[in-house]
Amino acid sequence: xxxxxxxxxLAAHLLAQLRDERTPPPLFRTxxxxxxxxxxxxxxxxxxxxxxDVRTPLEPAAGKVLGDLxxxxxxxxxxxxxxxxxxxxxEVAVGYIGLERDEASLQPQSYYRKLPPVDGRHVLVLDPxxxxxxxxxxxxxxxxxxxxxxxxxxxxxxxPEGIAKMEADHPDVPIFTAAVDRQLNDHGYxxxxxxxxxxxxxxx
Length: 204
Description:
With about 200 residues, the chain is of the alpha/beta class. It has a single domain, classed as Rossmann fold. The protein has helices at about 10-20, 25-45, 80-90, 135-145, 160-170, 195-200, and strands at about 5, 50-55, 60-65, 70-75, 95, 95-100, 110-115, 120-125, 130, 150-155, 155-160, 175, 180, 185, 190.
């Protein structure tokens, strides 16, 4: 399994602002969207393309287009990354997987799933925090059931424990992240992390 830490000055700049506890929810949402855009561009870098012929206002031209894409945010925090993908690809199909973590067991509990057909399509699973890896692995398994051509996991911050979980369960799924942080605390939060992404995103 490959883990790509997006080494870009803009990604580092945006992540530093997201980590700052003083960043208010409206700005946090804007920063999350911008960082998700940087991460998505990296995640699709080597997706296959199809040759096409288009007509410019002056003459025909050869071009390339990406194959069918599907974006699947893990609710609720993944919604903070979705708009970046839909702005880049207005035609993208979108599915949703709702998972919440049981605070005692730290295991994911499913409460919602609505996916478009993914057979033969390229899927981006969006989850800002890859912490224990339970939610990421469960969502990836749900997508895999639909037989996609490929799955790519896109997150803002990851922990070694979450990466190890994904590697054990889905060794063929590449991970794209802005940072691999030190570790998890006793409550399953990433250190240093940036707190609860969903709470900061929605001001709850």
